Amino acid sequence: MIIAITDDDGYTEGVEILLDVASKIGKAYAILPERQRSAISIALTLHKPLRLTYIKKNIYTLNGNPADCTLFAIHSNEFPKPDVIFSGINWGDNCGLSPLISSGTIGACWKAAIYKVPAIAFSVHRPHRRLGWEKKENWDREGLKNGVLRVWAALKSKLKKGDFYVVNFPEERYIKKAKIVFSKRRQWMRTFAVIEKRKDPHGNPYYWLSGKSIKPEKGTDYYELVAKKNIVVTKVPLEKLLK
Q: Model pTM?
């Protein structure tokens, strides 16, 4: 089993956790965007050269997007062609419909599925979004590793070409006791868009896009994650979408 890892946050602690687990499953390597690429979906870099940079053993960065990293793993011949793509672990969950379309973490999986390579997107819910992987908190690395291994045990026999799965973990403190739930219904909307008008020091206006959370809907992926504290797995069957 050859596993290629990418994400949309660059080189993070989440990548280290996922690479450690993947290395126990098979042969693993990571090709990551060289900088933050959240909410970039499946965008490709077509207007400039791609440059690969060695970071350390089995970890490389690319001056592109998550989908570029997926294509590089599959088509460049610089690395063994992966049997499966792991994307993440993303800081912040990817429940609902909006991330399915806009997330760079999930975008890497869309691109893998198009080229008939199975993929899994991993994300972890963070209730306080001011802090990211770059902040040295007391991450429950072992809890997250255990969660990834449990999900892999549940999914490895289900992986098919043209499909990918979106996995959302609750906060780390809940992972060990959480059960795995296969959700078919996604929350339609998780936030109301908020565009705040501000002024810079020179008095010129600028705008800040954010969102205000709404209540989780019962029976959805977001409800299972936030209210029930479960590990939520959602299948995205690309081939069925094309029929």
A: 0.90
